[in-house]
Specification:
With about 425 residues, the protein is mainly beta. Helices cover about 5% and strands about 45% of the residues.
């Protein structure tokens, strides 16, 4: 199928951008939500980017017979309305996406012209998985997808995040198993080779050394491994500060199988990174991947904020441990403030963080009383006690809602999330 046919096919699905209907638990003054969907498919795993009033959303659309394609839609009015979705990938159904592995979308400024939209995603190949990239310079059809050059090694990779540096380059951060390629066919869910049951099990930190985190510009011929020993299957986080510094975070495997959040900074455009720092000594011991990674945002004064989930003991001695959400910040890129717990109701997953004109804003999904999930938006206030510094509200309705994505426009906040179960849709709402 040609790129023109892709575009025509996407235009034929204009009815898939459905009129938004009011939802419950919505605060007064919020704009009606928009629904993005490809008819007859399960629409899930959104990501979102915003620049002034330009908003772009990318997501995966899966056929009932299997096979996932990447779609994108663009708004010029701050997320109030969107153009018809456009298919991004060339090869039918080759996208490899998941709850912690959405396609990543970025907006790149072009003074005097509409910005470019750049989408990076994980795709299947005969030698493992690859990172592919395509771009649109007019908000419509995308270019032919090409590999992120530094991701073309054999083996599996994914769980990427992206940011745009101050020179307009898209930088990517991802988890990589090229050093495990000879046993790629025997990978377990966490990407480690299956061992003989009679063989003693090695320490998780030692086993994870072949799992690495890589970073680099998507058009660069090489990327660098920041470190080994990462927790595979948790999303990474990447963001750019006002001074051009690039900040990265991921879940690391420390000695004793401790799964805490690590952090590194680049001051030279992602050519080199600092030695990793530990965000918080959470001491979460786990022989497996929690599939629940960190989020980062940088405030206007250069303070770097981190948000992540970790396991904590219950208040009662006989109470089971539970996942909780925590926030910490650093100014020097080396030492973080003591963690502060952010109030949640039910197990929090897939946290997001963004700096907006109104301040620091977070989103995540959490369990409801009936066992479903809802999306929550939280705003951080300066000063006051930790418990009083965050105000929260449920932004989704009664239908199952998860995997939120979050960005700040010039006059507000725009969120996207997956809503529903079979043939789910993407909801987008301004706040």
């Amino acid at each position: 199928m040609t790129r023109m046919q892709y575009t025509m096919c996407a235009m034929a699905t204009a009815a898939a951008i459905l009129a938004g209907a009011p939802m419950t638990a919505r605060s007064t003054g919020s704009a009606p939500p928009v629904t993005l969907a490809i008819a007859g498919r399960t629409n899930a795993t959104p990501s979102i980017a915003a620049m002034n009033q330009h908003v772009a959303v990318a997501w995966g659309a899966t056929l009932p017979t299997g096979g996932t394609d990447v779609y994108a839609a663009v708004s010029r009015d701050g997320g109030r309305t969107f153009r018809s979705p456009v298919r991004v990938n060339d090869v039918d159904g080759n996208a490899s996406l998941g709850l912690e592995q959405p396609p990543r979308i970025s907006i790149v400024a072009h003074p005097g012209h509409d910005p470019s939209i750049v989408v990076v995603w994980t795709a299947k190949s005969k030698d493992g998985t690859r990172l592919l990239v395509a771009r649109s310079d007019d908000g419509g059809a995308f270019t032919h997808a090409v590999p992120v050059v530094a991701s073309e090694a054999v083996g599996n990779r994914g769980w990427l995040s992206t940011t745009v540096d101050r020179n307009g380059r898209v930088i990517a951060l991802w988890l990589d198993h090229r050093d495990m390629a000879p046993t790629a066919g025997a990978m377990s869910h966490e990407g480690h080779a299956h061992a003989d049951p009679a063989t003693p099990k090695p320490d998780g930190a030692a086993r994870a050394q072949l799992s690495k985190v890589y970073a680099g510009a998507i058009d660069a011929p090489v990327a660098q491994a920041i470190t080994g020993g990462v927790c595979y299957c948790c999303k990474t986080a990447l963001t750019t500060g006002p001074d051009g510094s690039i900040y990265a975070a991921w879940r690391h495997v420390y000695p004793g199988n401790i799964r805490d959040i690590a952090f590194a900074v680049s001051r030279d455009g992602a050519r080199t990174f600092s030695a990793p720092s530990r965000v918080s000594d959470d001491h979460w011991m786990l022989d497996g991947c929690p599939e629940n990674g960190p989020a980062l945002a940088v405030s206007a004064d250069g303070m770097v904020h981190a948000l992540w989930p970790t396991l904590v003991a219950g208040p009662a001695t006989d109470e089971e441990p539970a996942l909780a959400l925590f926030h910490a910040a650093t100014r020097d890129g080396r030492t973080f403030s003591p963690r502060e717990r952010v109030a949640t109701e039910g197990t929090p997953r897939h946290p997001q963080l963004s700096w907006t004109p109104a301040g620091l804003v977070a989103a995540w999904d959490e369990e409801t009383g009936n066992g479903s999930r809802r999306v929550v938006l939280a705003r951080f206030k300066s000063g006051g006690s930790p418990g009083a510094r965050v105000s929260r509200e449920a932004v989704s309705g009664s239908a199952r809602a998860q995997t939120p994505a979050l960005a700040g426009t010039s006059d507000g906040v725009v969120l996207a999330w997956t809503e529903g179960t079979e043939q789910s849709v993407i909801r987008v709402e301004r706040r």
